[in-house]
Each structure stands twice: as C-alpha cells, then as structure tokens.
Write a structure and sequence with these properties.
Blueprint lengths: L1 E4 L2 E4 L3 H12 L4 E5 L19 E2 L3 H6 L9 H6 L2 H10 L4 E3 L4 E4 L4 H15 L2 E4 L3 E7 L2 E7 L2 E4 L2 E4 L14 H8 L4 E7 L3 E3 L3 H4 L4 E11 L4 E11 L3 E3 L1 H7 L8 E6 L6 H14 L18 H7 L13 H12 L1 E8 L7 E6 L17 E3 L13 H17 L4
Parallel strand pairs: 1-10, 2-3, 2-11, 3-7, 11-20
Antiparallel strand pairs: 4-6, 5-6, 8-9, 9-10, 12-19, 13-16, 13-18, 14-15, 14-17, 15-16, 17-18
Length: 413
C-alpha cells in the first residue's frame, strides 16, 4: 500500500489540474497531482483538432460575454488571470503563440503537445509530484475539513484538495464524470450534466444526402418551437450523416434546453438581400435558360446541395430553366435565405467538446474556488457548472479557475 504526504492534492491532470498544481507549488506547498491515465493532458491533446486553441486574445469582459451560464461567477477569476496573462505564461514557458481569425490563439507549432509540454515543464519547475495510474476512491474529511484521499492503491494525506476532474465528455480521456460523485459525497449539489458544444441530430433525412459538405460564411439561427430566435451566428457548418456540426452549430447547442424543440435556419447567402439574390438567380437563369434546372445552379450552390434545393423547392431536376414559374423561382429564393433543418436533439454527451452542468457555483467562492461547504476543498475547470462557446474561451476558464484555486490552496488552511 502506497502512502503519500502533501500539503495540497490535486485530482485530475488536465488543463485546470496541471495549472492549479503548479501555482499551489509556486506558493511553497508540497503538491501531489493524481492522474488516472499514464500521461497528463490527454484531453488537451485532442482539443482544437489537435492544435489546441489555448485562449482568445480579448479582454476579460469579452470572455464573460461568451459564457451563456453563470458568467458572473467567473468575474473575479478572469480579472485575476485574464487571457493576456495566459499568453504571457506560455510564451515565458518556451511555447510561442500565434493569433488567428476570431482572435483564437494557438501554439506556433500547431501542435497541442507543445502546450502539454509547457505545462509539464511548469510542474517540474514548481516541484509537483505526479502520481500516474491511480484513481481516487474517496476524499477523506474530519471535523476540521479535508484530511486526505483514499486511492485505488494507496492513500494521500493532505489538508487541501483541488478537484479538477473535468466533465463527462470524451470519457476515454478520463473525463468521465467521476469527479461529480466525489463532490456529491461531500454534500455538493451537482447540476445534471448535459453536452455543450456538441453536434446536432436532424429529425429528417436532408443532411444525410449532403454529408461531408462544409459551408463557410453562412448565417444560422437557432429557433425554438414558438419560432423565437434563441441564438444566431455567422461562420462555418458541416452536414453529416446524422445532422449538423461545425463551429456555428456547436455554439448553438449551448443554448438548447432539453425541454424545448428546435430548428436551425440557415441563410446560404447572407451577403445578399432578397432583391440582390433574386437578381443573381435571374442572371444565372438567363445564362443557362436552355439547361435543366439541375445544371443551371452550379454557380450558385455546391454540387451536393443542388439536388436537395431542387427537391425542397418542388422543382423537377429535368425541368428546363425557361419553363420555371415565378412561384418556383420564389420558392428557391426563400429556401436559400431560410434552409430549415428540424432538430431531434443533441449527439451523446460523450461526444461533446465540453459539459454544461456540474458543481453548483453558488456553493463555491468565486474568488478562491473554495468550497463553501468543506474547508480545504477547491474546484477548477469543467467540473464547475460553467461553459463557454468555441474560440478558446473554455480553456481560458480552465486557466483562470485553476490559477485561483492553486494560489488559494497555496496559502493553506
């Protein structure tokens, strides 16, 4: 039976856990980091399609605007450790960064491994001891608060514990929701987890016919059953065999309630109002007036989109352009400006980039990430009931909350 002694024990070797452990050790505390996998940062390695969108080059108040739930809880932590400090940290750790469209920040190497390596160097420099291949069974308390951990194969004595186990998306990386049970066992309320930033399943068959088609510069609206616009965005989307994905769709999913039903309305030509679009269609039809309609739309739509547009507009593919009625042309125009996709629901939470739900933030001190219920217990990262849109904002939450939890735990009890 292994026994470890420390001042601070951090559970979870992801972004928030590594960051919290390093800052706690910087304060002079003896810190152990418990990671169930045989390496650190397993989920970090797959973020941003393996490139790791490490943060967003914006002010703290702009990050808050990208958080649909409990944004006020993050006010103190984001001002304590804003994006500019994140960028400075990684640059100082020998990981140069670059800025791309939408202020997204990536390592210059385009490799998530560069971020993980910088964090591992931070842990070594700070003197953090990493315990691999161990799973926490229980957080032990006494009348004064935290006093240690029971592991699958051993124990840890510590007066402070930082819980940074993530949510329940991508369970193969270790982010399987096990941290919720640990927090709940200590009296914390868990807001039921749900997938956020997750692809959407179509209640129909149109998307399957266009699977693999990626569209850029389209406008989307998420509309509920009362036809109220819940969210709108501009950018990229992808048609898949099950429905819709891509950055705009992932962000839209963060606004969906399981109690409501939704449609996605896609404006395929947002740069053209109806008058200009009608003129464009008329020009194309004049140029190809003797062709079948299916062959006359090649300059207006991608090829895999054309059969669907024709079918949904009620036009026969072999119909000649010069025989189209004004009503048929109008149907095509309206479909271009509002291509609707009925949504059956989200893909499973295991496929979500991040999880909404988690430890109820009203039970956590927003300045220190300390539990209001158990002395010596802290939280960091996705285990908390906060999540943001795509663009580096979720990782920034991990850095900010990890910094606050680590520095607070570093001051001890």
């Amino acid at each position: 039976m292994n026994e470890w002694k420390a001042d601070v024990a951090v559970i979870g070797g992801g972004a928030a856990g590594m960051f919290a452990a390093g800052w706690a050790a910087q304060a002079g505390k003896k810190v152990v980091l418990i990671e169930r996998n045989n390496r650190l940062g397993k989920k970090l390695m797959i973020t941003g399609k393996g490139r790791c969108n490490v943060t967003n080059a914006c002010q703290a108040d702009e990050v808050l605007k990208q958080v649909p739930r409990n944004s006020r809880f993050l006010y103190s932590s984001l001002w304590a450790f804003p994006p500019e400090k994140t960028m400075a940290f990684f640059s100082e750790m020998g990981c140069p960064l670059k800025q791309e469209r939408g202020n997204r920040v990536f390592p210059q190497s385009d490799q998530a491994s560069s971020i993980v390596s910088a964090l591992e160097a931070f842990l070594r420099r700070s003197g953090v001891q990493v315990i691999y291949g161990q799973q926490v069974q229980e957080i032990i308390t006494d009348e004064e608060g935290i006093c240690g951990l029971t592991l699958l194969k051993g124990t840890v004595s510590a007066s402070c514990v930082i819980l940074a186990t993530g949510g329940c998306s991508y369970p193969l990386t270790g982010s399987d929701g096990s941290g919720y049970k640990l927090a709940e066992a200590l009296g914390h309320t868990i807001v039921p987890p749900d997938g956020s930033l997750v692809p959407l399943v179509e209640a129909g068959h149109w998307c399957r016919q266009m699977q693999g088609l990626s569209l850029r510069n389209v406008a989307i609206k998420l509309v509920n059953q009362k036809h109220k616009v819940v969210y709108e965005d501009f950018g990229e989307l992808l048609f898949t065999h099950f429905g819709l994905s891509g950055p705009t769709i992932l962000s839209a999913s963060a606004h969906m309630s399981p109690k409501d039903t939704y449609e996605i309305w896609i404006d395929l030509k947002p740069a053209l109002d109806e008058g200009k679009l009608d003129a464009r269609i008329l020009r194309d039809f004049a140029q190809f007036q003797n062709r079948d309609v299916a062959n006359a739309l090649v300059q207006l739509y991608p090829r895999t989109l054309i059969p669907v547009m024709i079918q949904r507009a009620g036009i026969e593919p072999e119909q000649k352009v010069n025989s189209l009625t004004k009503q048929q042309r109008r149907a095509l125009l309206e479909l271009t400006k509002r291509f609707s996709v009925s949504i059956a629901g989200k893909r499973p939470v295991e496929e979500a980039i991040v999880t909404s739900g988690g430890v109820k933030v009203q039970e956590v001190d927003p300045k220190t990430m300390a539990s209001k219920l158990v002395a010596g217990l802290y939280f960091a990262g996705e285990i908390l009931d906060v999540d943001a849109y795509t663009g580096g904002f979720n990782l920034q939450i991990a850095w900010s909350t990890g910094y606050c939890a680590g520095t607070a735990a570093g001051k001890g009890r």
